[in-house]
Amino acid sequence: MKIIIVGATGTLGKKVAEAFAQKHEIIRVGNTKGDVQVDITNEASIKAMFEQIGAFDALISTSGKGPFAPINQMTGEVFKSGLLDKLLGQVNLVLIGQHYINKGGSFTLTSGILADHPVAAGAALSAVNGGLNSFVLAAAPELENGIRINAVSPNVVEDSPAYFDSFPGEIPVSMEKVVKAYEKSVLGIVTGQVIKVY
């Protein structure tokens, strides 16, 4: 398979790319690094990426940022940064990518545990992750040509110790477990699912 991995140069993306590269052709996409560059907050940049890459079989997105900020310091502008980046950025990968993906292909987006288990200063990311999960549920029945879509929703991962304190009471999950969730989405048959790794 020809698999696009957006966010392939990040902590999670690197491990996912390594796993899939053993048997598949991988196009590593990053904001500033990788085989191809893209700014997921810019629709023209996303379209240019797909034009450059051409037809493909699967897209995995492990990219997207959102703000950590307490509610009493949150502004609409700060909140919007997460909506435009992690939420709309990943949604646009699907909206634009559906016109380039091969029949029977798949999209796998990344949400996260905050959709279900909030933490202090995480309201914006909780909303973004919940939005991604709902988008996947609603988009799945409408995608044509046997195209599947899922979200992987991981807990904080072992390889990101800087975030441990932000997730009190959570046991960090292994990268291997998270990678398996992406494999289930891409290589399996499920669609419209939120594959939770926590």
Fill in the keyword field for this structure.
7 strands, 198 residues, single chain, alpha/beta
Folded structure, characterized:
There is one protein chain. With 198 residues, the protein is of the alpha/beta class. The chain contains five helices and seven strands, in the order βαββαβαβαβαβ. It has helices at residues 11-21, 43-53, 76-97, 123-139, 175-187, and strands spanning 2-6, 25-30, 36-37, 56-61, 101-110, 148-154, 193-197. It has a seven-stranded parallel sheet with strand order 3-2-1-4-5-6-7, sandwiched between helices. The two termini are 28 Å apart. The model has no long low-confidence stretch (mean pLDDT 97).
How would you sum up this structure in a few lines?
Helix content is 37%, strand content 21%. It has five helices and seven strands; from the N terminus they run βαββαβαβαβαβ. The protein has helices at 11-21, 43-53, 76-97, 123-139, 175-187; strands spanning 2-6, 25-30, 36-37, 56-61, 101-110, 148-154, 193-197.
Kindly, what is the distance between the CA atoms of the first and last residues, rounded to a whole number of angstroms? 28 Å
Query: Which structural class best describes the helix and strand composition?
Result: alpha/beta
- Helix and strand string, N-terminal first? EHEEHEHEHEHE
Spans where pLDDT lies below 50 across 5 or more residues: none
> Helix share of residues?
25-40%
Shape, principal axes of CA atoms: globular
- Largest sheet descriptor: 7 strands, parallel
Radius of gyration: 16 Å
Would you tell me the overall average pLDDT? 97
Strand content: 15-25%
Major β-sheet strand ordering: 3-2-1-4-5-6-7
* Count of helix runs: 5
The number of strands is 7
